[in-house]
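During the reporting period the student researcher (J.K.) took over the structure-prediction task from the postdoctoral fellow and processed the backlog of single-chain submissions. One of the processed entries is reproduced below for the supervisory committee.
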Amino acid sequence: MSLVEAQGVSVRIGDTPILSNVSLTIGRGEIVTIVGPNGSGKSTLLKTLLGAIAPSAGQIRRASRLRVGYVPQKLHIDPTLPLPVSRFLSLPVPVPKATALSALERTGVAGLIHRQVADLSGGQMQRVLLARALLNDPQLLVLDEATQGLDQAGSAAFYRLIEELRSELGCAVLMVSHELHVVMAASDRVICLNGHVCCEGAPEHVASAPEYRALFGTGTHGALALYRHEHDHSHDHGRKAAE
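J.K. obtained the following structure tokens:
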């Protein structure tokens, strides 16, 4: 059974239609990315899939007792509030220090456990938020434009980390993004949304689809190649170092 399934889902806010007849599935262990222009309904779809918004029509089915880890776009925290990372990870439910440290190690920022949240860079904060999402051993990891504000190198590194976590934990990943330069190459399947599902499939299929090109142009292929070159090079370098 799929972790999440939407069948013919439509959403209206007031008299405004936001989503129309959207159907999709999120399977175990796969990375699915929803892309679309601003105002295409990406965040609304995400909230609907997670149960925060009730659909106007259609059905959402979720696996029983589905454990979800959520990484928001950003989190606004009062910079004057003394809040170390260790305490932040224990809100609202306390977690053992060993559990918090393990999650931070998985996201590569264990050294930040005693740092003040207000002192973290954007990239560090996103990895802390990702660690927080891992605390309940999620079956589905959801990221809502989680690399917003990071540069291209930072985004690429973050998406590579997501791939590694998927392999390590066996969780499914649902990402929502307007970024196209690297996110597609980190995905098993891409869903292009513009109020409805314009096209979906493997990244190469979507990048060459007329519906996708009508929305985004044809510049993504070079970015996909750049991502893969850097990604493969980093793996080759790691293998040589290991040898």
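The committee noted the following: The longest helix spans residues 220-242.
J.K. will present the remaining backlog at the next meeting.
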